[in-house]
Amino acid sequence: MAESLRGLGYSTATALADIVDNSISAGASSVDIQFEWNEADPYITILDDGRGMDDAELENAMQLGARNPLEERSVSDLGRFGLGLKTASFSQGRRLTVASRRKGEGKVCLRWDLDLLSVPGNEGWHLYEGPDLASISRLDALENVPHGTLVLWEKLDRVAGQGFTVQDYLNLQDEVQKHLAMTFHRLLGSGGDGLLLTLNGQPIAPWDPFMVGHPGKAWASPEYTLSGGSDIRVQCHVLPHKDMLKSRELEQAAGPGGWIVQQGFYIYRNRRLLVAGGWMGLEHAGRSLTRDEPHRLARIRLDIPNSADADWKIDIRKSSARVPVRFRRQLLMLAQEAREKARRVFAHRGQWSPAPQRQPVVEAWVAEKSAGATRYRISREHEAIRSLLDRSGPLRKELNALLRIIEETVPVQRIWLDTAEDTETPTNGFSGAPEPEVLELMQITWGNLVEHRGFQPEEARARMLLMAPFDRFPDLVAKLPA
Predict the structure, then answer these.
(1) Which of 53-57, 73-77, 387-391, 469-473 has the highest mean pLDDT?
(2) pLDDT exceeds cutoff 50 at 242
(3) What is the mean pLDDT of the segment spanning 66-93?
(4) Is CATH 3.30.565.10 correct for 2-203?
(5) 183-to-180, 319, 345 alpha-carbon distances in Å
(6) Percent of the chain with pLDDT over 70
(7) Sorting pLDDT into bands at 50, 70 and 90, what band is 80?
(8) Which of 6, 88, 344, 416 could lock onto 352 through a cystine, CB 3.0 to 4.6 A?
C-alpha cells in the first residue's frame, strides 16, 4: 500500500505545498524549507513554528488515513483526507522522519522507512521511534524554536535519480520557489496573513496572478457571488497588454507555466491556490474553451470553502477540481465575458477600453466576417493609404490591384501557427524599433496630410494620434511641427 501511494503524481513542489498546508493548519507564522545536497545524497527539511504535537498527536498524524474526510473541519483547515503528510513525503523519498515539540514539553519523533517495511518476513506496519542514527543532527534546527514541527525527507529516489546533478538540484529549487510563491501568494507577507515562507533562508515573495493595482491593467469585474452558492465568490481580471509592461514585469506576470498556460480559472480554498489556470472543461456551442493566444490575458479568481471539497471533486494532491453542474452556466458566462475583453485588449495592443474616452483609432487592417469566415483587408480609410490612393492618378487601378494581392495572400494559417508555437507574439506596431526610424515615417505621413490632404499642421497631428500604429507614440507625435 505504501509503495502504491507513491504513484499519486506529486511533483516536489506540490508535495512541499502539502507539508506547508499542515504547518499553516497548525498555526505556524513561519515555515523554512532547506534543500541539502549532502554530496549527491540529498535531503530536505521543513521546519515550522506551529503549536507542535505531543506523542499521541504525532502517532495519529503518522497513520495513513488518520482522519475521516467526511468529518466536519474547521473553516480554516487546509487538509481533508488525512494522507497529505505521508503521501506527499513518500512520493519524494523512502524515509520520512517527523520531530515535534509543544510549548514547554519535550521533543517527540517518529519515522517511516519504506526500505525496512519491504524487508522479506517483516510482517506488519513498523513505525519507528526516533530518527535514524545517521540523521540525528538533521533535526537540530527544531531546537531553535520554542514549539513547532520538523519534517525530514531522506532517500530521495524520486527526486535525485540516476544522472541527477547539483545543477539539477538548484533548478529544482527554482521550480519549488515559483510554485510556492503562486500557491500561497494570498497568505504571504503583509498582503496576506503575515506568513513568512523561506527557502534556504531566503523569503519567498508572493506572485500575484491578477496584477492587482497595476496602472496598466485593462479590467477587473466586481466580485460576484454565484447563485445557489452563497459562499462561492468570483472575480474576473484582464491583465495589461505586454506593451504596457516593463520587460521584468512581463516576465514575472507570465507565471510558472507561461502566458498561455496561466490563463483561465484560479481556484482557491481558504485563499490557498488549488488550480492555476485552465477553463475547467467549460463548453460553448459544443466546443470546449481552450487556452490560446488571443485570450492569454484573461484570469478569473474563484474562492470555494473547504466544505465544498466533495462537490468540486478536490483530489488528494489539491491540484485539480471539477465545476459542479449547477454552476457551469454561470461560470461560462463570466468566462466568455473575460475572454472577449481579453481578446480585444490583445488585438488592440492594450489601447481598448470598455468605455472609450476618445474617438476610435483607424487601423491599417480591418476584419470582415462572411459566411462564418474572417477575411482581412487593408483599410482604404487609413490616412496614409487614402492619401496615396488620392494622388496615384493613372496608377490608382494598379495600386488597388497590388493592395488586393496583398490582402489575398496574407499567410493567416502560418501566422496562427507561429503565434501558437512561439513563446511571444509576433512583433509589429514598431515594437522595439528605434525612435528615429518611427519618427521618420511619422514625418512622411504627416507631410502627406499637410501638403496633399490640405490639413492644418495641428489637425494633422490630431489625426496622427488616431491612426495606427502612430497612436502608440504620443510623445513622438508631439515632436511634429505645429
Answers:
(1) 53-57
(2) yes
(3) 69
(4) yes
(5) 5, 10, 27
(6) 89
(7) very low
(8) 344
pLDDT digits (tens, 9 = 90+) for 122-145: 777 789 999 999 999 999 999 999
The C-alpha R_g of the chain, in whole angstroms, comes to 29
220 Cβ neighbours under 8 A, 6+ residues apart: 210, 212, 235, 236, 237, 238
For residue 188, list its beta bridge partners: 195
Q: Specify the range with the lowest mean pLDDT, choosing from 19-28, 160-169, 447-456.
A: 447-456
237 pLDDT higher than 90: yes
| β-pair type (233-238, 264-269) | unpaired
Spatial separation of the C-alpha atoms in residues 312 and 265, rounded to whole Å:
14
Which position has the grid cell 503549536? 51
| DSSP label of 240 | P
What does the CA dihedral 188, 194, 196, 202 come to, rounded to 10 degrees?
70
Whole-model pTM over 0.90: no
Query: Counting every residue, how long is the chain?
Result: 482
Q: Count CA atoms closer than 13 A to 174's CA, side-chain side.
A: 8
In the three-class reduction of DSSP (H, G, I as helix; E, B as strand; rest coil), residue 420 is classed as: helix
Please tell me the distance from the alpha carbon of residue 298 to that of residue 277, in angstroms, as a whole number. 10
**Does a cis peptide bond (omega within 30 degrees of 0) precede residue 256?**
no
Q: Which residue has the cell 491578477?
A: 210
For position 129, what pLDDT does the model report?
95
Q: Give the pLDDT of residue 384.
A: 87
- For 314, other C-beta atoms within 10 Å of its C-beta total 23
Type of residue found at 252: Q
E strand or H helix at 283? strand 283-284
Burial 232-270 (b: 16+ CB within 10 A, else e): bbbbbbbbbbbebbeeeebeebbbbeebbebbbbbbbbb
Q: Give the number of other Cβ atoms within 10 Å of residue 444's Cβ.
A: 10
Where along the chain do its domains lie? Answer: 2-203, 219-347, 379-477
